[in-house]
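Hi, here's the filled form for the chain we discussed.

Project: internal
Contact: R.S.
Residues: 463
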Amino acid sequence: MINRVLIRIKTVQLLYSYLLVKKPFSLEAQPSQPTKEKRFAYSLYLDTIYLFYQIARRVKGKNKTLPLLKTRFILKIEEDDRFKSLNIKYSSGNYIFASLEEELAENIKGSLLFKELESDSKEKNDRIWEEIFKAIIFPNPQYNRLVTTMQNYSLSGVERMKGMMDETFRNFYSTRDNIHDALKTLEKSMNEARELYMRLLALPVELTSMLNDRLLQNRKKFLATEADLNPNMRLVNNPLPTMIENNPVFSEYREKHNLSWIAEDRDLLESLLKNIQDSELYQNYMSSPEHTEEADIEFWREAFRLIILESPDFLEYMENKSVFWNDDLEITATFVLKTLRQFENPETRENAVLPMYKDEEDSKFGFELFRLVVDNKDLYKNYIDKALVTDRWESDRLAFMDVVITMAALAEILNYPKIPLQVSINEYIELAKSYSTSKSGSFVHGLLATIIAQLREEGELHK
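And the returned structure, exactly as it came back:
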């Protein structure tokens, strides 16, 4: 159901917002006009940061892994130029807290903090180093004794260092480069697309149920008319809603997620039912002499196309219901129409409701593509810069969406050899036409053509 077209759309949209607002993490800078106290505080700050890293290399978890070394805080520290310089400086291990590493590592390994980290709590993963610093490292008597031996030591300098450490953690928590959170958003977006598909499939079921209840109530009127007593039951007896309702994939999802249009917005359903009953499509269907399953299912296909998906109230409701559904509705509706077509054929009826993904490869595609762009964005940006015709285009004046789409295209072209090159190019050209400027399709096409030619010439691309 979630095919690669939709996956590409969702991945590019998230990459755009992620890369646009990305706020990088960095360690505190060398203080300007440093006094002796500031020099001591900054030196202690950097040495303590380095101690974090050395401890992380010593604390072994399950299966001899190094979970502290994989925490986001340590990973971000390793990227910082200040840490890289410090790592070179102390490569021999000769720094003031070297003798403390083993003791602190053992204290941390036996702590509740470490046990919570191993339970795979993502929030704890982010905050564990602040808690280790405050609960284990800073109160350690040997740590404090060694601090007093440092050049220009002062209590006020220690307090200044603590303030710098607090600012570092605040900076870390406020950064918007947490790829884990971004991937969670991508997963949520995929799940929302699945829910939208199931909600659309549920409409014939619940609209029919509502109509049936209404007809039953009409029969109980004190002054029931002939039409009330003997209503035209053709729509109620339409077999499609029963087919959908009895489909095991649909029924399991519906029960698990407590999916009910009637319970959530009965007024909207009433409005849709009225629109259907007032339509020429309905009048023709109810009076038609053709009573076949194909005609019954075709009625619902046409009701979707011409009435439900054209209803302003319905479209507004869907837009307000989820931020993801506005862009998903058109493509998801095509999946629904395809599913209804599958119900027409007894041979395909059992598997008519589409799985969330075609296969395991598709289920991973968006998440892998997102990571590839984030991890290689500087490389891809360099390809883009080299390909630009300098007398016509300047890198910093490009539409940012064009840059993101081109980077995503490059990630796919370079890392997915099974996907034909022209398929990738065409897909991202269409994305540019739909989600960027009026000229973006041709621009991305030309840019990709230039980059591909360069990569082939340099032996970087062979497909």
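Let me know if anything looks off before we file it.
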